[in-house]
Amino acid sequence: MLTCFTIYSASTYLRLDFQGARVLVTAGTKGVGKAVVGVLKQRGARVLTTARHAPAECSADIFVAADLTTAEGCASVAQAVQAQMGGVDAIIHVVGGNEWQIAQLARHAAMSRSAFFAAFNETVGMPPGQYLLFWRMSLAKKALVSSKEKIEQIAFHIGYQSASAFNVAFTQYVGVPPGVFRRQNEAAQTHTPALNEARALP
After folding, report:
1. Could you tell me which residue ranges the HTH araC/xylS-type domain spans (predicted)?
2. Which of 13, 81, 93, 199 is the most exposed place for a label (fewest CB within 10 A)?
3. What is the pTM of this model?
């Protein structure tokens, strides 16, 4: 049976391991979706993802080429989920690239702006704007470390309309610009194997 993915607070989400969970991620072959698939795989999930066209490479366990704006595309994904995974425990619809506003989110939830803000804050433990920033920065850090995408592409994929706006937001949130963050992690990854090899020498 298909079930909806639950929104967790930031602290709870970071503790989840998804071990053994069967997860469907829409648009999981690039940008935000690809980063989401990577996080889920690290935490033990079996992931099926979709896109309109097959990518050159895909980190999900199963890929289905389908246009989810059509009934036929949705049906083909549902069939693949049942046939290849025996069902699904969670569905994540990737929409991180949208330039979300609280009023827009409230309309999607069929609530007033004030009611949505209060309900979200009570459920998640932080205001929607703060959570969206946390989620975008988490995806940005993942993409900077695990992909070769240009910073401009990452900025667009997580919902920023310009690289400069993303640079400012990332620097304020993380403490260093995205380019510096990427280089620091590349240096750390290069240094760790060499250090381990040196420690193994007699």
Report:
1. 98-184
2. 199
3. 0.54
